[in-house]
Amino acid sequence: MSGFKHLAFYGVCGGLLIVALQFVRYRFLVLEHSVEVYAVIVAAGFAALGIWLGITITGRPVVVKEVTVEVQVPAPAGPFEPDLAKIESLGITPRELEVLQLIAEGLSNKEMAERLFVSENTVKTHASRVFDKLGAGRRTQAVQLAKSQGIIA
Amino acid sequence: MSGFKHLAFYGVCGGLLIVALQFVRYRFLVLEHSVEVYAVIVAAGFAALGIWLGITITGRPVVVKEVTVEVQVPAPAGPFEPDLAKIESLGITPRELEVLQLIAEGLSNKEMAERLFVSENTVKTHASRVFDKLGAGRRTQAVQLAKSQGIIA
DNA sequence: GGCAGAATCATTCGAAAGGATGACGACGGG
DNA sequence: CCCGTCGTCATCCTTTCGAATGATTCTGCC
After folding, report:
1. How far apart, in whole angstroms, are the C-alpha atoms of residue A29 and residue A80?
2. Are the C-beta atoms of residues B35 and A58 closer than 8 Å to each other?
3. pTM > 0.85: yes or no
4. Distance from CA of B85 to the nearest CA of A (A)
5. CB closer than 7 A to strand D: which residues?
6. Taking all residues of chain A, what is their mean pLDDT, rounded to a whole number?
7. Which residue of B has its CA nearest to A44?
8. A63 pairs with which residues across the strands?
9. Which helix (DSSP H) or strand (DSSP E) does residue A125 occupy?
10. What is the pLDDT of residue A67?
11. What's the pLDDT score for residue A29?
């Protein structure tokens, strides 16, 4: 969906939203409720929508409140040195780390099994365990998490 | 101005707003700008709209105390510059690139479908195409290849 | 106004991945 | 000597992926 249809879709959504707001507004006015309260609700709603959009689009939290813009500088380049403390704290074993690295290189379970001279089942076990420890449900997610935490290169 | 006219006015405004947002979105996406930046703009816009609504409706200023948005941008250590030439030469489309990035973030096809407002089938199609263009058979491999070639962060 | 490139969605199938468990031998430290 | 950790392997079952196609709709462009 794009082009005219695209625009029309969003336009209609926007229109409906506004109409709904108007409806709510009238209901509130008729019911003699505080206009201020209504305004706050609407404002809060839009703010929430904005924040939600931020979260949805970026996929990461948008923190509201503090007045600072922090910038994370994760990778200063240089020869990668794994965060042993992090690995330790997560209880990741050497073998699991090995499997994790191979996963990051894009190998399938079968390929890893061949390279490590073990059965595919064993690889899957290691993978499952390391996913668990990383809190990942997918290998791609595990890779993303591991890299962002300095566990693997 | 009231009644239908009233509603129509607001509807049109809403529609135009959304259309504008879409326009901005595509500009940003096509120009490969940071999605985070875009999200912040949208969020700030909606928040501002909410505040404006509050002021307009109540007829009195809404005191906004320290409402700032803190966004954690992952790696501005040399703001990643995608290799447009490489992307071009491989014939990777904007949508495919988008899917590729989400894959790298560890999302499943279903999650991507929800975030992009398309069907899972569509996501799978984009994924297949981009795998083809990258010469990858697995998503993890695609991520590895794309990163090593400066296609994605 | 037609055409190429996109984006969209669908169907079907087989392969890969993942979850849940259970088990067994090796090794090391109480 | 017993227990805990690690590494190994297995089975069963569900979900997800990926390949191969075909079709439709939009958009941009000549």
Report:
1. 63
2. yes
3. no
4. 24
5. A 2-7, 91, 93-96, 116, 118-119, 121-122, 124-126, 138; B 108-110, 124-125, 127-128, 131-132, 137-139
6. 71
7. B50
8. B70
9. helix A120-134
10. 31
11. 38
Secondary structure, 3-state, chain B:
CCHHHHHHHHHHHHHHHHHHHHHHHHHHHHCCCCHHHHHHHHHHHHHHHHHHHHHHHHCCCCCCCCCCEEECECCCCCCCCCCHHHHHHHCCCHHHHHHHHHHHCCCCHHHHHHHHCCCHHHHHHHHHHHHHHHCCCCHHHHHHHHHHCCCCC
pLDDT score at B43: 59
Q: Sort residue B7 into left (φ over 0), alpha (ψ -120 to 50) or beta.
A: alpha
* Token representation of residue B73: 């941008």
The amino acid occupying position B151 is: I
Residues pairing with B71 in the sheet? A62
In chain A, which residue's Cα lies nearest the Cα of B104? A140
Phi-psi group of B139: left, alpha or beta (phi > 0 → left; psi -120 to 50 → alpha; rest → beta): alpha
CA to C1' distance (Å), from A138 to C24 = 29
**How far: B49 CA to D18 C1' (Å)?**
44
Q: Is the pLDDT of residue A73 over 50?
A: no
Answer whether A142's CB lies under 8 Å from A134's CB.
yes
Best of B24, B55, B57 to disrupt the A interface (most A CBs within 10 Å) is: B57
Q: What's the CA B125/C1' D30 distance, rounded, in angstroms? A: 29
